[in-house]
Design brief:
Elements lengths: L17 H25 L7 H32 L10 H12 L7 H16 L3 E2 L4 E2 L6 E3 L6 E3 H21 L3 E2 L5 E2 L8 E2 L6 E2 L60 E4 L9 E4 L38 E5 L6 E5 L40 E2 L6 E2 L40 E5 L6 E5 L63 E5 L6 E5 L62 E6 L14 E6 L9 E5 L6 E5 L78 E5 L6 E5 H4 L6 H11 L34 E5 L6 E5 H6 L10 H83 L1
């Protein structure tokens, strides 16, 4: 009522909070109801005119409705956009993005850890995480517990009930066990109680103190973490800070996350295992790296070197060199590893001590056995006095007070020195019971318990503890649940618990059709389990003429798969029917008399078991074609001779060609392929006998067997030297009945004109052989005369062409004295000619220079006078400029000193 007169300002919708949108809608609804109430209250008491008041109210109401509708639509849009698939508030897309950023580079320590992280990520992102105990969905706001080994999470209440039930069942089973005597008459006590509980998935053992009592985040920093929309479910949002595995001194820097922590990402400088290589910058998780250097340290034998690849210097493998060495006592010798130089044979020493009464009971050892251990200084049972006595004497009690600590660990034994254990502590002490309500003085070895009953509720939340002198650690409820299970037949036999009961552990029987095979299934699943497969033979009689044996089944009997075997009355042949049995075949037909009431009606199908007729005989029988070419295997029902489609192929009378007609019937049955049948086509082709190689004239006779008549066609061509036309017959030049070598000789003679060859030798002289083909023969035997000169070409001589080609030294001319005199005269004459030419050139050059100087002498004098005047003007200007510059410098110096 107090909110009615308050004025609320309209706030924009917050898209990040669904509660804000809902509040906004409720506020708008409240505002609309207030306006309606004001409208109703203002109707009877109207001060202004009625029309103006009604119009203003209508306008304000319309504006309010428009704003209200706009807010409702925006709220609905944001609600649909950020509504979670579960019944809780949250954003699935945000959760997927956060999980993806955290786990996208998560490799773990191996393949199994990587699979675990992927499994957890899939469960959290797909909203399909299931508690393996109650088979229920694990929601974002549920209190969970995560296993430290497999990282699977369960409902906190489910894992508590699971742990308590496991411990209770183990205790009850242990109480029901008793000791027994074995076949040897020995008493075997019952085993010691091992109280622990296991993880439902990986079966890791936990102690009773490890039963989770509180809902914690993944990093165990925060109790009952809040459900935040932008964090991983069940996470506190803080840095994990758990020690990394293996321990390296660093902690996890990811936000609180499920599953194992990733490998350490820190960068460190570390050397290899053998410390021989320099430091290397690597990840901390990969700090153990090896180089390729060999270890040079001595092995444990002290003789051989290790020579192993880089490893921990303190963990060199033992020496594997073998040698024969005696044992410690020297009785046996065997081949052992170099590192196992000291070995024991296992034989008891048995040598007598110096006392002569006792013998050494040690196994194979080196050195002397020493003194008898019973002759060494010994003490009394309480340990206060010691004495040295012979090994054959016993040391008794000392008679003093024992003064040993009793089992309580606080009081001393007050009896005299005695052998064996001390008795119970009888000191009177003040003790408090377990529940803390009673205090009493009793003997130290007794436990005090009162009669006060605990009134706390047990873990089931239904029954009280009622245990005497309870220390607030109430045991699980020991009463039977008794609820009817999901199967509807049995009741829960577990201890009283929270939540749904376990599935029924009883078994039900499902039988096959013949009741010869039984299978046990969980109770309540009889209708969901298919009929078991039975291997016994079916008892239903066969519908065909075969036995058709098959195993027991649920539906109709399978069709017979055997061969029919009856005579084939369809083909009426001597072969039996080899088709699959068709005495009882399932045939589906449609009703012919069906009249549809509309286009949606379909004709009904009629299923009948009928006996079908025998199919056509498919047995292969040999059938020969009508042309007697081939014999093929044809089906029995179609075994009639027909044309095979191939050419007849019989030899015609010409002896060259064969019948080109397709396979046809013969007049003479059984005719050979080498004989022409009257129904074959006669030969009408020309001669097909191949002509001799090179002959291009066809045979003019009709088709005949070889050989053909010799070709008499005249042929002309030029001779070898190309000057004369030669005429010959084709059969003479291209004869195929003469040997190849003889034919080449005949052709050479036939094309030779008999005149002298017109070709030249390589030396340039004409060939002296008769007209021939190819290169000229005997070119090296040319004896024509040629002229030879000396190097200065003064002397000359005629020699044979062969000598010149052979480059003989005897035919090379050399210059003599006359040649030298001639060369000297020629050189003198050439020098005189060059000197005269040079003198003439010098005279011409002097004459031209004199003419040039005479022509330009006047111009040069004028230019020289002008040049002298310009030089005088330049000197005057330089003197003037130098004086001005010196004056300026002097004035500047005077001014500088004055200012100073």
């Amino acid at each position: 009522m107090s909110n009615r007169n308050r004025n609320y300002s309209q706030k924009p919708a917050n898209p990040w909070n669904r509660n804000n949108t809902g509040t906004q809608v409720s506020q708008s609804n409240t505002t609309s109801s207030n306006v309606e109430r004001k409208k109703q209250n203002n109707k009877p008491a109207s001060v202004a005119p009625a029309d103006n008041l009604a119009s203003s109210l209508k306008q304000s109401e319309q504006r309010f409705k428009q704003a209200h509708q706009k807010n409702v639509e925006s709220a609905r849009k944001y609600t649909q956009q950020y509504e979670s698939s579960d019944e809780e508030d949250g954003s699935e897309s945000a959760s997927q993005e956060i999980l993806g950023n955290i786990l996208k580079n998560y490799n773990g320590l191996g393949g199994d850890v990587g699979k675990t992280s992927e499994y957890l990520q899939h469960l959290l992102e797909s909203r399909s995480a299931v508690c393996l105990i109650c088979i229920g969905t694990v929601k974002r706001a549920d209190a969970i517990w995560s296993c430290g080994s497999c990282y699977t999470f369960f409902h906190l209440m489910c894992i508590q009930r699971w742990a308590n039930d496991s411990i209770s069942l183990k205790r009850i089973s242990h109480e029901q066990q008793e000791g027994y005597y074995n076949n040897r008459g020995e008493y075997v006590p019952k085993p010691v109680l091992s109280v622990h509980w296991d993880c439902p998935k990986c079966r890791k053992e936990y102690e009773p103190v490890d039963i989770p009592r509180h809902y914690e985040c993944f990093c165990k920093k925060e109790l009952t973490p809040q459900n935040h929309l932008w964090l991983i479910p069940h996470s506190c949002g803080e840095t994990c800070r758990k020690p990394l595995v293996p321990e390296c001194g660093h902690s996890c820097v990811l936000l609180c996350h499920p599953g194992p922590c990733p490998p350490c990402p820190q960068i460190i400088n570390v050397s290899c295992l053998c410390k021989q290589s320099g430091q290397k910058t690597i990840r901390c998780s990969q700090r153990s790296w090896t180089c390729l250097k060999k270890c040079k340290r001595k092995r444990n034998c002290g003789i051989h070197e290790c020579e192993g690849v880089c490893h921990d210097p303190e963990n060199c493998p033992p020496c594997k060199s073998r040698s024969k060495k005696p044992c410690l006592c020297g009785n046996k010798t065997k081949e052992v590893d170099c590192s196992d130089s000291a070995w024991q044979c296992g034989k008891v020493c048995g040598r007598s001590y110096p006392c002569g009464l006792h013998s050494c009971e040690q196994q194979c050892h080196a050195g002397d056995c020493g003194a008898c251990p019973l002759g060494l200084p010994r003490t009394c049972p309480c340990g206060k006095t010691s004495s040295v006595a012979a090994c054959s004497e016993d040391i008794g009690t000392c008679g003093d007070t024992c003064q040993k600590y009793l089992e309580c660990g606080e009081h001393l034994c007050s009896e005299r020195c005695h052998p064996g254990k001390c008795g119970q502590c009888l000191e009177l002490v003040k003790k408090t019971c377990r529940c803390g309500f009673t205090t009493k003085v009793i003997a130290c070895h007794k436990q005090l318990s009162c009669e006060n009953k605990c009134k706390n509720l047990r873990s089931c939340g239904k029954h009280r503890c009622n245990r005497k002198c309870c220390n607030s650690q109430c045991p699980p409820c020991d009463k039977v649940c008794g609820k009817t299970l999901a199967c509807g037949k049995h009741k829960c036999s577990s201890m009283c618990h929270h939540g749904p009961c376990y599935p029924c552990n009883q078994k039900a029987t499902v039988k096959c059709r013949c009741a010869g095979t039984l299978v046990e299934v969980p109770c309540g699943r009889e209708k969901k389990i298919s009929t078991p497969k039975c291997k016994l033979p079916c008892r239903i009689p066969s519908k065909c003429h075969h036995l058709n044996p098959h195993n027991c089944h649920q539906d109709d009997c399978p069709s017979c798969q055997q061969v029919c075997g009856l005579p084939n009355d369809t083909t009426k042949c001597e072969h039996p029917c080899w088709a699959k049995c068709h005495d009882a075949v399932r045939v589906v037909t449609k009703d012919k008399n069906f009249v549809p009431a509309g286009p949606w009606d379909a004709p009904t199908e009629i299923v009948e078991i009928k006996q079908l007729p025998h199919p056509e005989c498919e047995v292969k029988v040999p059938v020969t074609c009508i042309g007697q070419h081939e014999t093929a295997q044809w089906p029995c029902y179609n075994s009639k001779p027909a044309s095979c489609g191939r050419e007849c192929g019989r030899q015609l009378k010409c002896g060259v060609h064969k019948c080109p007609l397709p396979c046809h019937s013969l007049k003479r049955v059984g005719a050979s392929m080498l004989e022409e049948d009257p129904r074959c086509q006669s030969c009408s082709a020309d001669c097909a006998v191949p002509r001799p190689a090179g002959c291009t004239h066809p045979c003019k006779r009709p088709c005949h067997p070889p050989p053909c008549n010799p070709c008499q066609a005249p042929t002309k061509t030029t001779c070898h030297c190309g000057l004369t036309q030669m005429f010959y017959k084709c059969c003479e030049y291209y004869a195929d009945d003469i040997a190849h070598a003889d034919l080449l000789v005949a052709r050479e003679q036939m094309l030779s004109c008999g005149q002298k060859c017109i070709k030249n030798f390589p030396c340039g002289h004409r060939c002296n052989s008769i007209c021939h083909s190819g290169d000229c023969p005997n070119s090296e035997l040319c004896n024509k005369k040629v002229k030879v000169t000396c190097p200065c070409r003064h002397r000359r001589m005629e020699v044979s062409c062969g000598s010149v080609r052979a480059q003989s030294q005897t035919h090379k001319l050399e210059c003599d004295a006359s040649c030298q005199e001639l060369q000297a005269a020629r050189a003198l004459q050439l020098n005189e000619k060059e000197m005269a030419q040079k003198q003439a050139e010098e005279a011409e050059n002097r004459r031209a220079l004199e003419e040039y100087e005479k022509k330009f002498s006047d111009r040069r004098k004028h230019r020289e006078r002008k040049k002298v005047q310009q030089e005088e003007i330049k000197e005057t200007n330089w003197v003037l400029y130098g004086g001005i510059s010196a004056g300026v410098v002097l004035v500047a110096l005077v001014v500088y000193f004055l200012l100073q």
